[in-house]
Amino acid sequence: MDLDAIHKAEQGILGAMLSRPDALDNFDGVLRAEDFAVEPHRKAFAAIERAVATGQPATPLRIGRELGNDIGGMSGAEYLGRCVAAAAWTMSVPDLASDIVEASRLRRLGNLCADVDSRIGGGESSAAILEAVERETFAIAERRGDTRYASLGEAAEMALKLAEAAYHRRAGLSGFSTGLADLDKLMGGLQRSDLVIVAGRPASGKTSLATSMAKGLAAQGLAVAFFSLEMSGEQLGIRLISEASRISGSRIVRGAINEAEFGQLTDASRDIGGLPIFIDQSGGLTIAQLSARARRLRRSKNIQAVVVDYLQLMQGEGKRGQNRVNELTDITMGLKALAKDLDVPVIALSQLSRQVEAREDKRPRLSDLRESGSIEQDADIVMFVYREEYYLAQSRPKEGTDAFFEWEAKMEAAHGKAEIIIAKHRHGPTGTVDLSFDASLTSFGNLERAA
């Protein structure tokens, strides 16, 4: 649209709003004041919205007072009177609104190009510029670039819809199922816009739990972005195929399988290959780089969840004078912002420090995260992975002693079990969930109980 056509379209919208109070209902939430190219039109639209919202009459005289007395040689009221007259010939109001929004998007893209040119001239890094471009283009495409407010009534309505979804869903979940029934029962599933931290010591099973969740989500047809900063895509694939085929990963890597098992691997590979899990195996990503890639996947693959393995392998932005704790704070704040921006759950794995090993009871606590930036504050859910069997195996007493028989009994009780400790839950209760864990397959599952 040329400038004259945009000008007339904006006049037509304003005239329709002034002459037909219900016209705003046709594009409420679609058209915004900043979409108008002409400054007086922006002011008029905002004034009409305020009047309608407060139950005041939106007349040319009343709204015109806010515009002043010099708009093209006319008073505000006289100018708006002409807008009302112009509205008589306009096409449908929704079509006009769409044209105005389209013109606004094109202007924003033009401004973005100019901004990029300016940033290049200012000596900014390519990574910073690309992040700004990704953020702005996503905002333009999704119409989510500004702050959105919800009244208490709107928030209550959204909560009711969430409860209704849980009521009608067979599993009684308001969020996405992880595929682990007992975990879902306590958490209510994975909620949109949540930052979920899965923390534990090395070899506790963090990555295995994350892959189980990712596979559970993908099995429901939900696309998942998996940022594997530690393991290669091949290694992650072996874990998934091992779990699906029930053949240990070590045997797969060594080729210690027979012909029948190779057939199982082929079938498992075919099944896994059909799951919508998109693996990014780049190491040392910054939060800006990861966010940009997640946005691209949101647009191109419609991802519904993000997994990050793991936080401490992400790089800081290199801000001068920043220590590692501050960098981790920026990273977790960025991941929470990403979860809200994309409206998807973000599952981020975190390594715990050695201080856990110094205690007699080695079950992780929230205080173990205190030296890792603002993880506890930013997270909606913090869960710890704890396997008693792992620690018992490291303290085997001498055979034949009383201590050995006591240890053997404990090992038998702990064998094949894991505890998932929900230490923080912004939306519900905390507690511990018992899961099965197969060390040879590095896979979690629902714990079978005696009838």
From TrEMBL:
Pfam families from the UniProt entry: DnaB, DnaB_C
Domain SF4 helicase: from-to ranges: 169-451
EC numbers: 5.6.2.3
Reaction catalysis annotation: ATP + H2O = ADP + phosphate + H(+)
InterPro entries the UniProt entry points to: AAA+_ATPase, DNA_heli_DnaB-like_N_sf, DNA_helicase_DnaB, DNA_helicase_DnaB-like_C, DNA_helicase_DnaB-like_N, DNA_helicase_N/primase_C, P-loop_NTPase
Keyword Isomerase annotated: yes
SUPFAM superfamilies in the cross-refs: N-terminal domain of DnaB helicase (SSF48024), P-loop containing nucleoside triphosphate hydrolases (SSF52540)
Record GO biological process: DNA replication, synthesis of primer
Annotated NCBIfam families: DnaB
Physiological role: The main replicative DNA helicase, it participates in initiation and elongation during chromosome replication. Travels ahead of the DNA replisome, separating dsDNA into templates for DNA synthesis. A processive ATP-dependent 5'-3' DNA helicase it has DNA-dependent ATPase activity.
Protein name as it appears in the record: Replicative DNA helicase
Species name: Acuticoccus sediminis
